[in-house]
Amino acid sequence: MKNPPPYAAAELDALFPAHLATLQAGTAQTLAACGLDSLLVGAGSLHFQFLDDQPYPFKSNPLFRQWAPILDAPNSFVAFTPGKKPLLIFMQPEDYWHKPPALPTGAWLDNFEVRVTRAAAEARHHLPGQGRTGYLGEVHAGLEHWGMTVNPEPLLNRMHYSRLAKTPYEIACMRVANHKGALAHRAAVAAFRAGQSEYAIHLAYLAATGHREEELPYPNIIALNEGGAILHYTDLSTHLPAAHLSLLIDAGAQCRGYASDITRTTAATAGAFADLVTAMEELELALCAQVVPGKHYPEIHLDAHLRLAQLLGEAGIIRGTPESAVATGLSSVFFPHGIGHPLGLQVHDVGGFQAAPEGGTLERPSGHPYLRLTRTLTEGAVVTIEPGIYFIDLLLKNAQADGRGRDIVWERVEALRPYGGVRIEDNVVATAQGAVNLTREAFASLG
Ligand SMILES: [Mn+2]
Q1: How far away, in angstroms, is 172 Cα from ligand 1 center?
Q2: Domain residue spans in the chain?
Q3: How far, in Å, from the CA of 288 to the mean position of ligand 1?
Q4: What is the pLDDT, as a whole number, of residue 416?
């Protein structure tokens, strides 16, 4: 097999018991702290379009996926009582219109007691009858008669807080997700070089991941030329521009419900924009190296502003010192988002602002309203690092109006505006040995 994934399914299965043991031990403590005896996690249910019999794509509860890597079984549950084997209640309706979800296979399942149910109401009979149960998941009809505490905040807070740091199994899944993403990014760049449309590049990307569109961890951002200046551009236009100047692609993949989130920018030809991309590569790697246990994540964000301001100066886009560009908010005209976020079961993973397991909020640094992570990194934390420089009409116009425009070299901006922007994004683990860059590893493994 050409470019095999870094772990085979059996290797992931072999890592699963230790993951589950960590989750069980943490949950036992959490339940005790919350005065609960057991936990029930719902996978979620199908939601139907208004006045229609078609459901929206099913997206399972991330808290359910953390226990059981099942993505396609609505109305299933995991129940856990400390000291007992976790129980998987797998919903397999009797249905001749649709193919019922297949009972999963794989050695990971040996860690569960499994009961198959045919109807949602039946699930209740399999649940632990005694004691106080905390339920985490969507509220469904009849839940109020199950006698549970539904989505209690103290329980949710503790479960979310602990998700910043990943287990070795989770990191392995994210390695595989990065591998799939890297393969697909290669395919996308090839389609760009062949002069294809955003939509055709998207199809090449999908084919290389092996995902259906709804299996992607988030909608692909595939921008040719000035589309790169729209941060969440998801048009996937079939139109062919007069020229292919640049490609900004922000697209991920997933493995067992764990996401990768990767951005690359490619210039079609050598020149000022290509130079900006090269300089951004170096800057981004310097920021990635800061992802280590004990690092206060907002410091990486503030350092990114200084480095980007320096780069903007060197590229002849702004005048003045980097320090003044950061102080006046000039750097935010070109870099108007956060440096990254926690990554895992959700692309923008939870708990990024939490002060402690019990709750509380760590505020963002003032003047930086879009940063999504304000905690100090711990061992096993997985985050993205994604610096960018964009030529955004709205923000440039604002800067012109409020005086920051005096330090902008407008002819330089005009020359670069047709290229949209540059963003480079990797997924990085904080380990005792230093920053481990899952995305760079994945691209390097492709040779
Ligand atoms: Mn991201």
Answers
A1: 19
A2: 9-33+35-151, 164-445
A3: 13
A4: 98
